[in-house]
Amino acid sequence: MKLSEDFLWGGAISASQTEGNYLADGKRPSNFDQLPLNNQRLKPVFKEDNDNILKNQKDEIFPGRFGIDFYHTYKKDIELLSELGINSFRFSISWSRLFPTGEEKEPNKVGLAFYDDIVTELEKYKIEPIITISHFEIPMHLVEAYNGWEDRRVVDFYVHYAKCLMEHFNNRIKYWIPFNEMNMVLHIPFVGGGIQFSEKRNNLEIQYQAAHHQLLANALTVSIGKKINSEFSFGTMLAAGKTYAYTCKPEDVFASLKSDRDNLFFADVQVFGEYPTYTEHFFEEKNIKIKMAVEDKKILKENTVDFVSFSYYSSACTSADEEGLETVATNGFNTLKNPYLPKSTSVWQNDPLGLRITLNQLYDRYRLPLFIVENGLGTQDILEDGKVNDDYRINYLNEHIKNLVLAVQQDGIPLMGYLMWGIIDLTSVSEGRISKRYGVLYVDQDDEGHGSHERYKKESFYFYQKVIASKGLSVFE
């Protein structure tokens, strides 16, 4: 089995990490615009904490507010991506650029025109647009007035926004991802759901209530979208990566099973249309009472997704007893260090075979087409004489692409495509630093937004260009 002729080779970015210009042309602030350039940005925001990120903003730098100026550079950036040879490009819409407070009846025409122009540029170069409707972004007004996704009324605001988008781009967009990495609402609740905690409440309950509202909004978006255009294709999107047991001790194996189960909870609901059976005991044990309307279960059941898209950066590792064991960072949270994986120049461990394992895990579970919509290496690069020799990134991409090809050829996985994350350097979610670079295009800019902002092709640009032209076969040379 070979990669299909219509295999989607491309890259991905998000609005909040690239566009900048956060108050331009009628846009108002989002939750992401409040994240400072420091190590506090992903911690839960407690209302009672006078030192939280929302109350101490006078002397801070906010990378999301300036991004990489994609708001003005998108034409040149897309031209460079066309030269790279991609046939698909995933980007997100800024909710607060279209509906500045989230409660408006009509969209901001200037904001809508901006996304019109992006899609027009992609059409010009025959690049398939893939839209993420909400990528870690919610209007700040909805955070302040409703505590983000905790409040059911936000479902209606989101669905109105999504409907507007789908009606406007009816015959121009096929692939829709309603939410980016929905499972991150459990790990980074302010970023993933615009949620502020309180020391007086059951905050885990708040997270799962917000999760229910996002799952409901996802299903309602599918329902409305299919009525607008039956050819629309909708995907779940989760932060994925198989969780290994630290040892073959049965207790460790069961701990890894539970970790995978918790991580895949959101995709389970979106694919199967119902809550997994284990959640009943889990909610009872944690004193979680989810408020559901009578019709919610029916809505979830009747409006499932068409494909499973996911991000993969590395695998995870767990044990029944983690005390005294070394931990490392992975995508949005910490995990046990796997002693069998080599050191990496990135913040996470390099596990390309883990991508193939994850592909098999997801297909065995869901039996739907899969789509890798994020994969890449975030690390520091050095620009010298207009060049970046990033052989470490080339090695990372080569080994991961090799494993996805093998998953298709030898394991029979129906894979829709592969999108490199941060194909243009952008400000990272975890640190807000552009110096944690992902792209094959280097942006001459420092963490505080200073620089020429010129784009330079890294050595990985030419590597990925060759991979695409060879339909993935060059990785075996």
Automatic annotation (TrEMBL):
Coiled coil: none
Pfam families: Glyco_hydro_1 (PF00232)
InterPro entries: GH, Glyco_hydro_1, Glyco_hydro_1_AS
Keyword Ribosomal protein carried by entry: no
UniProt keywords, alphabetically: Glycosidase, Hydrolase
Entries under SUPFAM superfamilies matching the protein: (Trans)glycosidases
Keyword Hydrolase: yes
Active site as annotated: E374
PANTHER family reported for this sequence: 6-PHOSPHO-BETA-GLUCOSIDASE (PTHR10353:SF296), GLYCOSYL HYDROLASE (PTHR10353)
Family recorded in the similarity comment: Belongs to the glycosyl hydrolase 1 family.
Protein name: Family 1 glycosylhydrolase
Taxonomic lineage of the native organism: Bacteria, Bacillati, Bacillota, Bacilli, Lactobacillales
